[in-house]
Design a protein that fits this description.
Structural class of chain B: mainly alpha
Chains: A mainly alpha (about 400), B mainly alpha (about 170), C mainly alpha (about 100)
Number of helices of chain B: 7
Oligomer: heterotrimer
Shape of chain B: globular
Strand content of chain B: under 5%
Radius of gyration of chain C: 17 Å
Largest interface: B-C, 85 and 70 residues
Number of strands of chain C: 0
Order of helices and strands of chain C: HHH
Structural class of chain C: mainly alpha
Number of helices of chain C: 3
Radius of gyration of chain B: 21 Å
Chain lengths: ~400, ~170, ~100
């Protein structure tokens, strides 16, 4: 027991990392389900609804397919680089989740003598967001090396185009955040969120002084993650499949997971930097809003139970009411234990904001056409970068003239 | 054997291994990847020393921009496996001896120095970004403006140099 | 804590390896990368001394070295592109028009 307590920090961190990895990979899998369902409904069709109730087991089926598909290695590839590129992309994407704080307070009880914060990095890391930019900067290598090592024309072109796009929009990405950093005076993500708290709830969020910065950041982030409307380098009808043409089952799945994980990271960043992170939009004096998780979960759970009872297959009739019952139970438990309810408030708001941004991402995928490559690069260099720089100049001028905005 | 010492030796071994791999690899892209490993391990060493801003800038600028430029140029110029001509083998042995002599000389000077700074243990303080930026923009503002001008000149120079010859009309 | 000696020794070793790479490599891009390795070794020494003396001048200088290395890489690689276009090869021994 002494050994455990002496190395308590290491053990708690390792367990947190394993848990977070499991959660992120599951969220990724169900994000693919979410995307397919939402894009399908935008296009007036059903999406996956056969595999499991409402298609909920589709990610599982896809995972099994990826595991068992044949994994050919093309001739003439540079073996070391070919195998390392998807690993690099996946490792970097998953590492960036480690920097994000998911809640302000540690758990109410100490495990192995350690305060367990929600989030892997302790909240006093002074270079939070700079470390995130460092990881994004290294993410270019996964794409460029994948394209080059495939020993084929289309992946090379797709990889070069994609990496050129990523480094162009990286500038606009980092510059559009500088406004937020000037307002908060720190790189620390917890500090940035705490600086957005005010008496009036939503009015203190960074979106109001920094609306231009948010628009630039969101557009640049979509281009960084190679999503529609900036996904020409990996569009299927254009360059076969871009830089991951020659990658088959499991390695392609690694690129796939890396892309969705970076989507999740960008949504986290948007909500933390511009939308108050874990702060509630209602003023703190309105304590009745603390029952909002319960008020949302209970009808949802009841509806899932009702839907499950009337579902077609027997499997659905068993699983869906079970899920609904769990949701109702959680809702009732939140009302019954106010201490748990207080603790759950902060992660609840952060997760709902992340969900809203993920929905906006998927919504854009279903709605917008893609930009041609020269239009994309022209937009990044000639429109987004000057606007980001102008945002920095205006923000510094405003801070100089009217004192700090906080 | 404190944890810091273990981490130092691990990162130092990674850096030296990357540098040796840079020399031994035949294809320039593998040398570039080894250099990226060296840079990331150096960033880790900076973090170990408490210079967090410099570590982040090292990864963002060196690892994320300069080395990307190298990798692009290697890909676009289609650099293949290097050829070894007879002249290179001839210059190898005296070159090796001289390089080892240089390293040995520097290392001996370091090892023999009894200066208090040389032997001092690293303090655990973190260099704050606020103080660093105050120093750049107050004491070193003139070199700062000069380097921004230098970057502008470098951009223009690179663009002009790499253009293809335009056909004289 | 780790003595400053260790960091400066590592910096010397990396510098020596950079010089070795400069001598042995024939590809002009590899030679350029060995120059970057030497610059990195020097940066390590700067930061080590800066932390030992509790002054931030070393780290400010490291930032300037990184910026100058970036500018140098841009122009140097442009020169390499032009030279390789002219001499049709990336081997540094082919640039020999001034030889006897």
């Amino acid at each position: 027991m002494d050994f455990l307590t002496a190395h308590g920090w290491l053990i708690v961190t390792v367990v947190k990392v394993a848990l977070l990895l499991f959660i992120v990979l599951t969220v990724n899998a169900y994000l693919t389900w979410f995307e397919r369902k939402v894009v399908a409904h935008i296009q007036s069709r059903w999406g996956p609804h056969r595999v499991g109730p409402h298609g909920l087991l589709q990610p599982l089926a896809d995972g099994v397919k990826f595991l068992f598909k044949e994994d050919p290695t093309p001739a003439g590839v540079d073996r070391g680089v070919y195998f390392m590129a998807p690993l690099l992309a996946l490792a970097l994407a998953l590492t960036s989740i480690a920097i994000i704080p998911f809640g302000p307070d540690p758990l109410p009880w100490k495990i192995l003598g350690q305060e367990v914060y929600l989030g892997i990095l302790p909240p006093n890391v002074n270079i939070g967001i700079l470390a995130l930019f460092a990881i994004t900067a290294l993410g270019v290598y996964g794409v460029a090396l994948a394209g080059w090592s495939s020993n084929s024309k289309y992946p090379l072109l797709g990889g070069l185009r994609s990496s050129a796009q990523m480094i162009s929009y990286e500038l606009a990405l980092t510059l559009s955040v500088v406004g937020v950093l000037l307002i908060s005076g720190s790189f620390n993500l917890t500090q940035i969120i705490n600086d957005q708290s005010s008496r009036y709830g939503i009015l203190g969020w960074n979106i109001f002084p920094q609306f231009l910065g948010f628009v630039c950041f969101f557009i640049a982030a979509i281009a960084e993650t190679n999503r529609v409307p900036f996904d020409l380098p990996e569009a299927e009808s254009e360059l076969v499949a871009g830089f991951h043409t020659e990658y088959a089952s499991f390695k392609f799945a690694m690129f796939f997971i890396a892309e969705y994980t970076s989507m999740i990271t960008v949504s986290c960043l948007c909500s933390i930097l511009f939308f108050g992170g874990w702060l509630s939009p209602f003023p703190a004096t309105w304590t009745w809003t603390w029952y909002l998780p319960t008020v949302l979960l209970l009808p949802l759970g009841l509806w899932v139970i009702w839907d499950g009872i009337h579902y077609e297959t027997i499997f659905g009739k068993l699983i869906l009411p079970g899920i609904g019952a769990v949701m109702c139970l959680i809702a009732v438990a939140l009302v019954a234990f106010p201490a748990v309810n207080n603790f759950v408030q902060a992660p609840f708001w952060l997760l709902s904001k992340i969900l809203v941004f993920l929905f906006v991402y998927v919504w854009m995928r279903g709605t917008l056409p893609r930009l041609r490559y020269d239009q994309l690069m022209a937009f990044g260099w000639k429109m987004l970068l000057p606007v980001s720089i102008a945002n920095v100049i205006f923000t510094s001028f405003a801070i100089l003239k009217w004192g700090a905005i906080r | 054997m404190t944890p810091q010492l273990i981490i130092f030796f691990a990162l130092a071994a990674l850096a030296v291994g990357g540098a040796i791999s840079l020399i031994l690899q035949k294809h320039p892209i593998h040398s570039a990847l080894s250099l990226i490993v060296v840079m990331v391990s150096l960033a880790g060493l900076y973090l170990l020393m408490g210079a967090e801003f410099v570590a982040a800038v090292q990864i963002i600028v060196y690892g994320g921009a300069i080395m990307v430029l190298f990798v692009f140029v290697i890909m676009l110029l289609n650099a293949g496996i290097e050829e070894h001509t007879s002249l290179s083998k001839l210059a190898g042995v005296p070159g090796l001896l001289l390089a080892l002599a240089l390293t040995g000389f520097i290392a001996a000077t370091i090892a023999r120095s009894t200066d208090t700074v040389q032997a001092a243990a690293q303090p655990g303080n973190m260099a704050s970004t606020r103080d660093l930026s105050a120093m750049i923009f107050k004491d070193f503002v003139y070199p700062f403006e000069l380097t921004s001008f230098l970057i502008l000149v470098a951009i223009l120079g690179a663009i002009v140099l790499a253009q293809r010859e335009k056909a004289r009309a | 804590m780790i003595p400053t000696n260790y960091y400066v020794m590592l910096s010397a070793i990396l510098f020596g390896l950079g010089v070795l790479a400069f001598i042995f490599k024939r590809n002009v891009i590899s030679i350029f990368m060995s120059i970057e390795l030497m610059l990195n070794a020097v940066n390590l020494a700067f930061v080590a001394f800066s932390q030992a003396m509790h002054k931030l001048d070393g780290q400010v200088f490291v930032l300037f070295v990184i910026v100058v290395a970036a500018a140098e890489a841009a122009v140097g690689l442009a020169i390499i592109i032009v030279t390789s276009r002219n001499r049709q090869s990336l081997n540094v021994e082919r640039v020999d028009l001034l030889k006897l």
